[in-house]
Amino acid sequence: MTECNDGGGAGSARRTSTARQVAGDGAEDRALAYLQQQGLRLCTRNFRCKAGEIDLIMNERVNAHDTLVFIEVRKRSSMRYGGAAGSVTPAKQARLIRAAHWYLARYRTMPPCRFDVIAFEREEMSWLKNAFAAA
């Protein structure tokens, strides 16, 4: 089983101060609740390192096989500029991959991993599994 023993981010929690941060935190809360209902288990929330931040790191067990899932949560009120999912640009993907490498440094053997995006367009949520690959 992939270990998920730290339960929190690396460093202190972000203080929510702007309306945008409050909306983002609410989207993360909704995404987390939904993913837990789908059977995923929280490993870390708001993991921070020199390479960047990962919103949620969760473990998914399917047929006795564990997968470590790195999840980016995005919320947009309009579809301009590609909407929430489209805002996970190649540059953002590269930062997420680098941050995942930092997180994975704690493992002796590399667990199976994937990168998902939870996208909120207004109030509608989409779960994009394997949204991009670490090539």
Question: What this model shows, in words?
Answer:
The protein is of the alpha+beta class and 135 residues long. The protein has a single domain (19-132), classed as Trna Endonuclease, Chain: A, domain 1 (3-Layer(aba) Sandwich). Helices cover 28% and strands 37% of the residues. It contains 3 helices and 5 strands. It has helices spanning 19-37, 83-86, 90-104, and strands at residues 41-49, 52-62, 65-76, 113-121, 124-132. Strands 1-2-3-4-5 form a 5-stranded mixed sheet. Residues 6-13 have low confidence and may be disordered.
Sum up the structure in keywords.
5-stranded mixed β-sheet, 135 residues, Trna Endonuclease, Chain: A, domain 1, alpha+beta, globular, 28% helix
Sequence-ordered SSE layout with sheet pairings:
Elements: H1 19-37, E1 41-49, E2 52-62, E3 65-76, H2 83-86, H3 90-104, E4 113-121, E5 124-132
Parallel strand pairs: 3-4
Antiparallel strand pairs: 1-2, 2-3, 4-5
CATH topology: Trna Endonuclease, Chain: A, domain 1
Parts with pLDDT < 50 across at least 5 consecutive residues = 6-13
The count of domains is 1
Number of helices: 3
Beta-strand percentage?
35-45%
CATH class: Alpha Beta
Radius of gyration: 14 Å
Distance between the termini: 25 Å
Structural class by sheet pairing and helices = alpha+beta
Order of helices and strands: HEEEHHEE
| Arrangement of strands in the largest sheet | 1-2-3-4-5
Based on the structure given, which CATH architecture is correct?
3-Layer(aba) Sandwich
Q: What is the general shape?
A: globular
Give a count of the beta strands, DSSP E runs of length 2 or more: 5
Average the pLDDT over all residues and give the rounded result.
85
- Helical coverage, percent range: 25-40%
Largest sheet: 5 strands, mixed
